[in-house]
Amino acid sequence: MPRSVTATVVGQQTIDVDPTAQANNIGQELKPKTIYSVGKHAYDARMKSTNSDNLQMHFPIERGIIDFEHEQDYLTELLKNIFEKDLGLEPRNMKVLMTDCPFNKKEDKIRLTTMMFDTFKVQSFALINTAVLSLFSTGKTCGLVAECGEGVTYTVPIFEGYALPHAMHSLKVAG
After folding, report:
1. How far is CA 113 from each of CA 12, 84, 108, 162, rounded to the nearest angstrom?
2. What are the structural domain ranges in the chain?
3. pTM value?
4. What contacts 42, CB < 8 A, 6 or more positions away?
5. Handedness of CA 134, 155, 108, 141 (dihedral sign)
């Protein structure tokens, strides 16, 4: 069983500064405080929130694809929560293996790798195609992998441990 399972959702809530605190800091402009909640805690915060406009839900990973254009900060919060709170680990002391959707763009893979080294300062990092790992788990290096998961079904032919991108197919239907 996995040690931790986390929904890939980040809640962002902005809280106005307490007027009494503002009175104590005359002349200083106090900015609203931002609080992040991740996974189940984000959904719980949404249920408890009396002002739903104040709590925004962000999904940095959808159908296995990371949205770096709009959600990079939220992905950082998600990963920070997984490493530090869920697993209780210090990322800079770790070697990280992360799975990757076969349809992620090369630029996004580079951005994720850069984030892991620059932000989390991991010792080493490997980003490996999920279909290739699935095939390796059977002890084989050649085959056709069909995966059905979170919102997407895809087939990936693999030869000698390498996915063949020109022959991959995806369908945005899953169970």
Report:
1. 25, 19, 9, 19
2. 92-175
3. 0.76
4. 7, 9, 10, 11, 57
5. positive
